[in-house]
Amino acid sequence: MVDTSTAEPLAVHKACILSAANEVLRGRKICFESDSKEAISWVEDEDFKNFMPVEVIHDIRSKLRLLDNASLNFVPRGANSMEDGLAKRGLVLEGENVVWNVF
To answer: Can you give the pTM of this predicted structure?
Structure first.
């Protein structure tokens, strides 16, 4: 079982892996959104000692550099109904779920 402070960076990591592997997305503007200020601070700052899989943070940073037009932004949970809905849906589904939105 993964706790919430670990789940968010792992979800961002998975999104970065999937995006970096998709050649169509390279060079396009990509915005990863998270409702976890802590997860974002771990990616942006050097102080992430509370998060044990350090290699995950380093790989997120590497993928963001590879994507070069990608950003990771904080969006409060109440302000993003799509993200909140996907999170709730993920609680009841098993396996991996991928949803792409192109704006």
So the answer is: 0.72
